[in-house]
Amino acid sequence: MRSLPLVFGLVAACGGASDATTPGKPSPPQDAETDSEPETDGSPEPQPSWGPDDVRGAAQAALELGIPEPGSIRDTYLHMFDTWADGDCPTGDGYNLPGDYEGCETLDGAWFYGHGEYEDSLPYADVGFYLLGDCFIVDPDGARFEAAGELELVAEEVRGTRAIRGMVLGTWGYPGEEGFLTELTRSALFLQYETNGDDRRLTLDGSWGSSAANIMFRGFELHQRTCPDLLRGEMMVREPNGYWHSIQFDGTCGGCGTIEQPDNAEPASICIDIGVAGEVVVRSLEQGVAAEP
Q1: Per the domain annotation, does 11 fall within a domain?
Q2: φ, ψ dihedrals at 74, nearest 5°
Q3: For tag attachment on the chain, is the N or C end more exposed, with fewer CB atoms within 10 Å?
Q4: What is the number of structural domains in the chain?
């Protein structure tokens, strides 16, 4: 069981599932493709082929699919237990899976396989949960929930400021849901939402990859006190050839930042609409620590 407090930073800690297979059932989870940090391996450096409009389009498509957050993943995991688990399957205690990697089928036709640990009473936080998944769950219609990583969500209040902190590590997906969960998404993402009176701030650090794009945040902040789209920090967007475009936001309203241009051309302005995606994340973080589902 996990007993250390959540440490926020950029780490790539994406889990994988067992390589064993179960007769008559799909193979265990497979990781989606993305990079948690720009890397070099001695090959020639990739060169940019996208213009500002291409970068904006990829970033916007990723945001519209949704930013990974732990609350909705946890709710989906628990919902599958509450809906289809019976007295004989799975055999773990509560919302835990035994980790025998044999799997079992419920009376309703759902399939539970692998290892899962769920805690909602954490020694280092008054409110929050932790979920470790190395498993999959197939619902009676054949839709498969993939869990290969870790989730955590905790809340605290210090001197009038309430902070909700979360992490999503590894690969998660379930086509029976909406947003980012509809496909396998691989993440090493850390989120923090702070409120103090009218001041609200969402901070994102880390990366995630989906069919839309690979995105990385570095000290990226969305403030909502003076305006709904005040952005600060760095957002990076990866081309298929491996080149990372950096969008720098300086903390002005309007959702616009600057992106470097090739051949020493003047930096270009690029604007993104993150308002809806940010509100979805904030709502899920608040609901995730408000009460048990």
Answers
A1: no
A2: -60, -45
A3: N
A4: 1
